[in-house]
Amino acid sequence: MHKCIFHKKQPKYRHTSIFIHLKKMKIPRRKKWLKSFMLDDYLISNWHRICRNHFTISDNKQGSAYKQILWPESVPKQHPNNLLEIESSLDLCWTRIHEGIQMYLKAFQLPGESPLI
Predict the structure, then answer these.
(1) pTM over 0.70
(2) CA-CA-CA-CA torsion for 55, 59, 60, 62, nearest 10 degrees?
(3) Is-contact 54 76, C-beta < 8 A?
(4) Alpha carbon distance 17, 40 (integer Å)
């Protein structure tokens, strides 16, 4: 089985083992993809692939679950799934900070006084 050029290991699960052959791509598109990984074209061999873990749902056309078809303008990302996790954890942090500030202000509010927030 081929390995992904980015994380250089075989996928953990069979359903993530869809690979895209880099050498068979048209040169302008391949260069754009390699630029997203900060790789040079001369380092690519016939054995190099990019696994589907580097694409988001919006990169794929709606179609069969067994055949993944990418939009022509799709470019792989190094960690697309991690970005979503980071965004959601930041939202959670801001929510907790806001709740903490409200509790702090409420603790120092005098009886009969209007809320500060």
Answers:
(1) no
(2) 140
(3) yes
(4) 24
Q: What is the CA radius of gyration of the chain?
A: 23
Three-class SS state of 55: coil
How confident is residue 47, by pLDDT bands cut at 50, 70 and 90?
Answer: confident
Give, as one character, the DSSP assignment of residue 15. G
Query: Tokens in use for 90?
Result: 């930041």
Cα separation, 110 vs 104, whole angstroms: 12
CA gap 31, 89 in Å, rounded: 33
| Cα distance between residue 40 and residue 37, in whole Å | 9
The whole-angstrom separation of Cα 61 and Cα 116 is 50
Distance between CA 30 and CA 42 in Å, rounded?
12
Q: What residue type is assigned to position 107 of the chain? A: A
CB 14 within 8 A of CB 66: no
pLDDT computed for residue 69 by the predictor: 78
